[in-house]
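Q: How would the structure tokens look for this protein?
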Amino acid sequence: MKQLVLVILANISLYASHTTSSKYTLCRADTRCAPIKPTPCIPPKIAPKIAPKIAPKIAPKTPASILTPDKYTTSIGPLEFFDGVPLPATVQKAYDYLDTMRGVDAFLKGIPGASLQALIKANHELGATESNQVMIMDKLMDSKPLFLTGNTTTLYTMAALDLKRDGPTVVEVPAGMLGFLNDAWFHHLQDIGPAGPDKGQGGNYLVLPPGYTGTIPKGYHLVHSRTYTVWLLLRTSIAKGLKPAVDLIKSKLRIYPLSKKDNPPKMAFISGSNVSVNSIHANDYSFYEHLNKVIQREPLDMLDPETRGLYASIGIQKGKPFRPTTRMKRILTDAVAIGNTLARSIVWYPRTEGTMKGVQHYPDTNSSWNRGYLDKNVFFNGKDGKTMNSDARTTFHYPYTGVSPAMAATRVGVGSDYAIAYLDSTKKPFDGSKTYKLHLPANPPAKDFWSLTIYDNQTRSMLQTSQPFPTVGSQDKGIKKNIKLNSDGSYDIYISPTPPKDHENNWLESIPGKGWFAILRMYGPLEPWINKTWRPGEIMLLSEKAEEQ
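A: Here is the predicted structure in token form.
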């Protein structure tokens, strides 16, 4: 008996001296030893007496919902644990997934900033680098420049303000403009024109940089910006001709630093018509490099702490170099591909019974015509004004540009309103090798004019074909005056690689192997458009037999 006690004490002593050593394994809660050969284990006869002291059993009343099993089967593969602690391979897999998710979120949240950065870059590439140098589509916008869903029917003027360099900047706007000012993250700052403080009569705006505390002179409409970069977009009607509209801009628009108001520099107007320039953000790894430039340039509080923390988690942090490791470059390359896929899924196939309910123009018929702004909300903050809808934000900023409440506030005979078709009548994407037909009932309800323009799925810019102005409508450079009407006054418009017989002037060219989408615009929308008693038909794929005819 004495010898047995000594043996037991010796084994307990041996166990105690190795409880922190990797040479020994702990006994499981069922008191059975689990050795990993050749690792020695506590003798089974002794383990039951000492295991409860170092590995207590799970209490019988512990809810199963709070426990972590030894193995999960997940969408990223198996995840394995030892009593709740992830094994090394699982830890690496989890961090790779976390960094990928953050990269995807950074892409979707960063589209507005990267998009405006690309617009500014395009201005600079054309030579418009100073505040008094302005880009103007003096021959209208055609399909040559890459510009998100621009139109061919109004005169565009764009300017990039640099408040960090110039300080407070004056913008003298002529009467009759429709425009706005957006900051570096595409936040709306100020409408210009009928919806702005000048009420369409023109006026002088003073754009102030972040944190400005200097003297503010009287006689200006003040605009306070949270960022140093500010983008100006003006649209001018060409109802009285293109030349008068261009002359009005060139003779009346003035932009200069307030410090030079007594001797402002001469304006320089640089043509953006018929030139190849890209104003669209990247969809590859370089997206994050462009985003980093915005973060480095602009004030810290341009973004909220949560978003700043998101970017910092992938290596983009103000005041620090962006130097991702080889691993992070690989992960971010994967993340941007996933993010781009998500953006395109949200745009082409919005979840209209979920986050994107309200994006359809005619939900009662499950029409393929959509709106640019969900529920016509340009702030994407829900009906309560406090709940951000990130899908709505993506569905606008990925294919469109320019944020203005006036663009979403439909008023009879004023401004413009749009309907966008990404899919045909059967909810399938448009195929450039096929022939499609759009029927518009008689008397399209637009006080000024209406137009239909088609765009490239890839670039979200005008489709580049033999038609430099891919638009048909009641007022456009690309429209023949003898556009054919049906006997009842309605229109049939065809989109196909070749024009259907006897419908050449009602035709928009598509390209085999490429997709497209369409935007129907009403300038000065009238009551039948607003109350939806007048509706466009769906864009329908014609049968092979009909195509041959």
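Residues 2-67 form one domain.

Residues 88-125 form the longest helix (38 residues).

Upvote if useful.
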